[in-house]
Design a protein that fits this description.
The protein is α/β, with parallel strands linked by helices. It has one domain: Oxidized Rhodanese, domain 1, CATH 3.40.250. It is built from 5 helices and 5 strands, in the order E-H-E-H-E-H-E-H-E-H. The chain has a 5-stranded parallel beta sheet. Helix 4 links the parallel strand 4 and strand 5.
Length: about 120
């Protein structure tokens, strides 16, 4: 089986790789930001599980697909990826978070969405 993120080193993938995984369904993308941050703007197709609830909801994640975590700038998502990888998941963090996603001109929902301060 070809890895979903073959060019990735470590735990991070790019927003471009994350967008492609969302488009083709090759990975599950989890937004670990707080509810008010997600409400301000999010990537279409992502699932919301605040980082504080991740351990309680980890069992609801499909272990058959890679999981990419996203947050505002990449700190919380990196911690989430490390924790889930230690539990046997194919887990990744989107480098630069939603700040980078937005800076690269990728769409945020709802229309006019923004990246909220943490």
């Amino acid at each position: 089986m070809t890895p979903v993120f073959p060019a990735s080193d470590g735990l991070e993938v790019t927003p471009e790789q994350t967008q492609q995984a969302l488009a083709d369904g090759s990975a599950v993308v989890i937004d670990v930001r707080e509810a008010y941050e997600r409400d301000a703007g999010y990537a279409d197709g992502t699932r919301h599980i605040p980082v504080t609830e991740l351990s309680a909801q980890a069992g609801s994640l499909d272990n058959d697909k890679p999981v990419v975590f996203v947050c505002r700038v990449g700190g919380r998502s990196l911690m989430a990826a490390q924790a889930l990888r230690a539990s046997g998941y194919d887990a990744w963090s989107m480098a630069g978070g939603m700040v980078r996603w937005d800076a690269e001109g990728r769409t945020l929902l709802p229309e006019g969405g923004t990246v909220a301060d943490h």
